[in-house]
Amino acid sequence: MADGLLSSDAVVAQPRLLVVEDDAHIRTFCQRLLRNTCIVETAEHGGQAVELLQGQPYDLALVDLEMPVMDGIALLEHIRQCHAETDVVVFTAYASVDSARQALKLGALDYLSKPVEAENLERTVRSALELRRVRQEKERLSDLVFMYQFSQLIASSLDVETQAAQIVEFLWQRFLPESLALSLLCPDARTLRLLAARSSWAEEARERELALDAGCDAAALQAAHLQVSGYGKSEPDDRFAGVVLRSHDRPVGFLHLTRRPEQPPFDAAERRLLGIFAGQVAASLDNARLYQALRDQNWQTIAALAEAIEARDAHTFGHSRQVTRYAVRLAEEVGLAADRLEVLTYAGLLHDVGKIGIRDQILLKPGRLDDQEFAVMQQHPHIGVRIIERVSGLRAVLPIIESHHERYDGNGYPQGLAGEDIPLEARILAIADAFEAMTADRAYRPAMAPEEALEVLLRGRGTAWDPHLVERFVEIYRREGARLRVEGLVRQLPVSSLPQEAVGIAR
Q: Is the pTM of this model over 0.70?
């Protein structure tokens, strides 16, 4: 790909042509014939051509196969290996099938037989340059498609680990490297963490994290990245492409790719394209990390709110976390999608938030509630909804909070919903809430044994709770048992509504 390939507004420069021929007459002939359409430079042999190629790129080289110092075959191999962006047409001393095949196998675009005719030379050069233009346009469009696909890919997830794996896989397919690694600076900017890596030699990274004692400038970041990724076997060369990931003009990580010795080195266009990808990678990972930090902060805030509510009663601390643990495990068992699991998690923590509006005389009453008191208690789902509906990011939890005291037979509250009219997540939460309540000590009665509470759930199938979900929960608890209990919680908790046979426990 040529410079400016990614810009549709790039100025079309005059093609650069290199004639490598030991015959001075042919060099002069080519230079005079093609100077109106190309910038033409000449070399007497392959060695001189190598020096010129190192200094600047050429679109096309006309190479004689028979030359002193460095013949055309050796030069052609050098161009294919080190200057793959340069197309080659070869001169052969005579027209034969064997010489033509040899030239094409070596990577030549076309061949011309000597003596060279002006019309044939002009036509061949014009055709070679047109093929080059078409190929470059296809490559440009292909890269634009890749960039679009890449943008769509990294926009599909806000999970840092998922994004890193997708980025590595995408760049691996696009650049076909020998190794590839992606690291990200931790928020303190003092530790570099390897997010993802891949290599053809299947070597495991030596470390996952590394302290940046020398700061986080480009050199220090690259050195630390090479160490943490396990790529420290040699100094980077032209088959190494490394770039600092920057977001808002600050370093956030490092990305590198390497190629095998037999592969062509990264050319200028590939490095530019990699730089564009790197900019997208940096912004995407930085946004994902910020999003994760906000989610963690939201989670901590919600958990603190739930505990603050439960702190009103020494018997209720940890209730919401344990109910959430049960509910999420049951939801996983029945195949709820990840986004719905997240909503259920928030709903589990916040399902009793409405109790903040219930007077202590009722909420903390040690005995059973009378009818009037129970009517007041039944308002806590509505109160919870009124509190949470002001938070736009939590609106998805409202139907769950509002319906977690509904019964499968329609005799629950606050709306008297029945069967599958009750949201699935609310039906799940109701079972988790009830089981947690029955297995918790109260000031006026001891907790039920887990097996006794499971039998109560089974007797309430189809009346209090969804029968299918009850059976699945019983299977899970009998299989996994104590592993579902949150460690370190005070196990004296309030109870939720239970079947009629469990009246005296419920609230």
A: no
